[in-house]
Design goal:
This protein has 139 residues and is mainly alpha-helical. 82% of the residues lie in helices and 0% in strands. The chain has one domain. The chain starts with 6 loop residues before the first helix and ends with a helix.
Amino acid sequence: MKSEPPVIPALLSLGLPTLLVLLVQTGVGLIETWFVSFLGTTALTAAALVFPAYMLMTMITVLTPAAARIFLNSSVPPLLAAYAVANIFVLALFAYDFFQRGKICKATWIASAILIAAEPGRMIIGQTRWWQAFASLFA
């Protein structure tokens, strides 16, 4: 009988990078809120209205690598599939904005444009030797 590899090291190696990213993003969010609080209640209210879309865009960015892993054993190239999934989430956000507000929020347009414009650069960086070496630390 073949023994199974230990589960805890695998979970830690997969979960720690995501946990670190989420901690950093939470810290940045707290600092941004603190800064915006000095601008007054109007600015704080505007930030609160944009916050759900901001967090969804952040989660789309974090989920892209996980979506790529789903397609590892398929005929669809994993990077292409991952970015297709990310863009489907962006379209869902557009639909949510449109049906909730009757229009698509300017912040949603800007964040979506940044996310989609960054995809080619992320593909190029993801294929470099140094990035692969860094990613292998967590495999």
